Amino acid sequence: MHYGNRLKKRWRNNRMKDVQNTQDTRNVDIQKVGIKNVELPLIIQRKNAHDIVVYATARVCVSLPRNYKGTHMSRFVEVLNEWRTKNLLGVDIKGCLEKIIKRLHAQSGELEFNFKYFVDKESPITKLSAPMCYDCSFEGTMDGDDYNFILGVKVPVTTLCPCSKEISDNGAHNQRAMISVKVSYDENEHVWLEDLINLIESCASCPVYPLLKRQDEKFVTEHAWDNPRFVEDVLREVVVKLRNYPVIKSFEVDCEAFESIHNHSAWAYQKEG
């Protein structure tokens, strides 16, 4: 008999022990166990545009009862691999999370995708378009029948200091700031990333653009001058608009301005719902 065939026959006749399912006697229920930094492509649905394939990293975990020694790490990857070919709207990750929990025989679980999302953005005057990159995330948590989805995005903006403008004869210090927002809404609703990004950008002194010609730079500089904002102002503007967004039931806002003349950042934070 050929060596390869003998090896296959011996493997079939020798059932491998499932170590993960063996008994553990230390009496500790593990709240979260799983895998992180899993790299994979995802297909994301976009508003008024073709679907886009993004590079994503995943973190996925489940609860583990005290009587099991370990979880089965390969099963996480198997389910993620099945789901990477589906067009996702965000809340759709519920199905993926349900399957993971079922495959691992768990009570609860969490799934998070972090990815770069590109939006074609026009310059304000010359209307030249170029891709703008935003850090985004889909997060899902499930415990029994209780499911919660969170959409996250980080949006760079410009802030111009109202105090600096008020006290200076010429000019005012301005800087780039980062507004990080996470929103939660019912699974039968939807919030487009594009709409959330536009909402956030409208609350700053001025948006940040990927491509600017001289006419555009003049507009951006003057627009920021006409709309001075502390981080407190930016945060309050975002909070008011999120409160009035019909389908959003809870949110978290983090605003950090990387001060151009101070050796520190200015920061504000709010969580509601």
Write structural notes for this entry.
There is one protein chain. The chain is an alpha+beta fold and about 270 residues long. About 25% of the residues lie in helices and about 40% in strands. It contains seven helices and ten strands. The chain has helices spanning about 5-15, 75-85, 95-105, 160-165, 195-200, 215-225, 230-245, and strands at about 30-45, 50-65, 85-90, 110-120, 130-145, 145-160, 175-185, 205, 250-255, 265-270. α2 packs antiparallel against α3 (about 95-105). The mean pLDDT is about 90.
Tell me the number of strands: 10
Number of domains: 1
The biggest sheet amounts to: 10 strands, mixed
Q: Please give the share of residues in helix.
A: 25-40%
Q: Might you state the CATH topology name?
A: Urate Oxidase
Q: What is the highest CATH level, the class?
A: Alpha Beta
Distance between the termini: 69 Å
Mean pLDDT: 91
**What is the fourth-level CATH superfamily?**
Urate Oxidase
Q: Tell me the radius of gyration.
A: 24 Å
| Continuous helix count | 7
Low-confidence stretches: none
Gross geometry: elongated
> Any idea what the CATH architecture is?
Roll
SSE pattern, N- to C-terminal: HEEHEHEEEHEHEHHEE
